Amino acid sequence: MAPQNTPAYAASLGDSHARLDALTGLSQRLLERCRAHGASQAEVSCSEESGLSVNVRMGEVETVESTRDRGIAVTVYFGQRKGSASTADLREDSLDATVEQACAIARHTEHDAAAGLAEAELMARDLREFDSWHPWVIDADRAIDLALACEQAGRESDARIENSDGASVGTGESIGVYANSHGFIGHERSTQHSLGCALIAGRGDAMQRDGWYSIALAADDLEPAAAIGRKAAQRAASRLAPRQIATGEYPVLFAAEMARSLVGHLLGAVSGGALYRRASFLLDSAGTQLFPDWFAIDELPFLSRGFRSSSFDAEGVATRESPLVKGGVLQRYILGSYSARKLGLQTTANAGGVHNLQVEANAGDFEAMLAGMGRGLLVTELMGQGVNTVTGDYSRGAAGFWIEDGQIQYPVDGITVAGNLRNMFQSIEAVGSDVDPRSHVRTGSILVGRMTVAGET
């Protein structure tokens, strides 16, 4: 492995097309071997990843890690019996053994009527790139300097910052090829970079921790290191001297980075796996009103520099722009070909997940959302896993701020917010324009009109 600060490593950043060509050739050879072993259908995924990450704390370097990984996965079908095997070894005898193992597994598995490749006519034909390849030529020394500057800016910005959980810089790139026996071959390449800091305000039993981070496909899109450190300090210090609030029912405003989790619970409930296993509170909900009639979520797989932009899904099926929720009505489920067949439906080109979701805003920025709420709880942190996907019951530890007259009054913690997701979805009153850009689920803050908040008894 070449060190991150050598010319050999820097040169490797520019050879992605050559590497993709090599992986394409490898995929085709593996498909030929699968056919030679009698497989009626086959698919191959090949990927390569490399990265650098550094962590510092209290002005000292804690870790520097360089990674370089490779993965090759082969899946074969003998009729509707399936077998899979994987390797990271490119030696010919290892590749042969991987194909043989996949075939042996398939010959000994049970027939599954839903097994098989996605239909050939659904394969993507218009293959594009979405400005997702921006290698960051940065060596370990420079990454360390950035992390130190981020932490220092935060520690120096507020005298109440007594300690640090550290700052980190990360950069990574990945290339991949998916090919199957329908003749489909798809290439993808992407980069991702991050810079973050977590700081501790106060001391002893009065300590409070918070942080901030930036993530982007291109390093030029990251927030400045000093700005991240200062924001981490401001967030940590703002949580000092928290109070409790009386148990009751209040409006709850989920800050944008927390609001994503509500969309995540929806996705989990309408995913094919949960539905065909009948482990979802949203069984048979397609075509029904789940949200207010103004509420909408669109899937946008072709966004330039989108975190999950792609012309095809994990099975080679052509992606498409389409609504998930429109007029408050759930338009469809999240399906790959296997779950679609189990449900008697057609794939929605979501094998491997969704490709960029946009939650439509109906309100203004963050300050406007606070003003519109008037009085209630702003949630800036959620803890625990208290969500029952079968019933929709929701109960999670939380921290944030109490709001009066549309203004933040004081921090609160040691509370629990609870409800039922179906009722919470119906009770959404506003979605802000304050979109958090750090995810493939793009949403502003979300105001739920009424939830149970457990605080002081």
Automatic annotation (TrEMBL):
Domain spans labelled Metalloprotease TldD/E central: 134-240
MF terms in GO: metallopeptidase activity
Pfam families reported for this sequence: PmbA_TldD_1st (PF01523), PmbA_TldD_2nd (PF19290), PmbA_TldD_3rd (PF19289)
Keyword Transmembrane: no
EC identifiers of the protein: 3.4.24.-
Record key words, sorted: Hydrolase, Metalloprotease, Protease
NCBIfam families: PRK11040.1
Annotated family: Belongs to the peptidase U62 family.
Name of the protein described by the UniProt record: Metalloprotease PmbA
Lineage: Bacteria, Pseudomonadati, Pseudomonadota, Gammaproteobacteria, Lysobacterales
